[in-house]
Design goal:
With 289 residues, this protein is an alpha/beta fold. It has twelve helices and nine strands.
């Protein structure tokens, strides 16, 4: 790569002292030559902000801002993104560890897409690898926009996207959105500008205080309710009005939440694993008659 566009790594922090140092050191070890780190602390109470103040004083490519009050992860990431100077954004959590080649590999492979995401391994609280591939552990292949509306395989900390992607939503996350990475995946898939890179480029840490995490994703009802809430928010926005795929996705979630049949849920899960999205649509059309 002869030309190295500025990449903004945006890091949202809240009471992250336990693992933050490891993550910051992994950012400093990136072999991509042109990046900044924008850190927004969400009113931490454990000394995180004071630690970051000292850290950024010796790192010229870091910017640090602190929220006046605890605002939540989506709002904190939005603030960091709005402060970013780069044309490319990489989302970063406080408790993971990035491999030195992460930013470089994502930039080398994004091509003409607007969002790229990679695989990760899973580590425990002590940094021990518990799954060699997060994608194989709990993610599915998703190949079209309609499918992204009902399922997500993009984890925020594994992705890099063009800042231009946010122009599709007027450069701000809609109020009420609970999961920003799913929204970014939906936006990129809607214009067919999403790409998966089958490489492990980071360690995704699992611990009891994860905001969501790989283990939490097993709680399908919890994830379903959050996704339904997000789609309800999107359906009120001008840029998603009269979107028949979105309306179908909302019906899909309602069927899952209202139907207690384990057989039905198993059939839908099998169709998802097989990538047979058309089978799911046919099944739900029958159920919704």
């Amino acid at each position: 790569m002869k030309y190295h566009p500025l990449v903004s790594v945006v890091l949202a922090c809240y009471n992250g002292m336990k693992y933050l140092e490891q993550q910051l050191h992994s950012l400093d070890a990136q072999n991509y030559p042109n990046f900044e780190v924008v850190v927004v602390d969400d009113a931490s109470t454990d000394g995180t902000y004071e630690y970051l103040l000292d850290y950024v004083s010796t790192h010229h490519n870091y910017t640090l801002v602190c929220n006046d009050t605890n605002s939540g992860v989506v709002t904190t990431f939005e603030k960091a993104i709005l402060l970013a100077k780069g044309d490319y954004i990489a989302l970063c959590d406080q408790d993971d560890i990035w491999f030195p080649s992460k930013v470089q590999e994502l930039m080398l492979n994004i091509d003409d897409r607007w969002l790229i995401h990679s695989d990760a391994n899973l580590i425990d609280q002590n940094g021990v690898v518990i799954q060699s591939s997060y994608f194989k552990f709990c993610k599915n292949e998703i190949n079209n926009y309609a499918h992204y509306l009902i399922e997500n395989n993009v984890t925020g900390c594994t992705c890099l996207f063009k800042k231009e992607l946010l122009s599709l939503i007027d450069n701000k996350f809609p109020r009420g959105i609970t999961v920003h990475d799913h929204l970014l995946a939906i936006l990129a898939a809607r214009i067919n500008k999403i790409k998966y890179l089958d490489e492990v480029l980071m360690s995704y840490r699992q611990h009891p205080t994860n905001q969501i995490g790989a283990v939490s994703a097993v709680n399908k009802e919890y994830i379903t309710r959050r996704h339904l809430q997000d789609l309800d928010v999107l359906s009120t926005k001008t840029y998603f009005k009269h979107d028949t795929d979105l309306e179908f996705a909302k019906k899909y979630y309602h069927v899952l939440l209202k139907n207690d049949s384990p057989t039905l849920k198993l059939i839908i899960w099998i169709f998802q694993k097989l990538g047979a999205f058309w089978c799911i649509k046919y099944l739900l059309k029958v159920l919704l008659k």
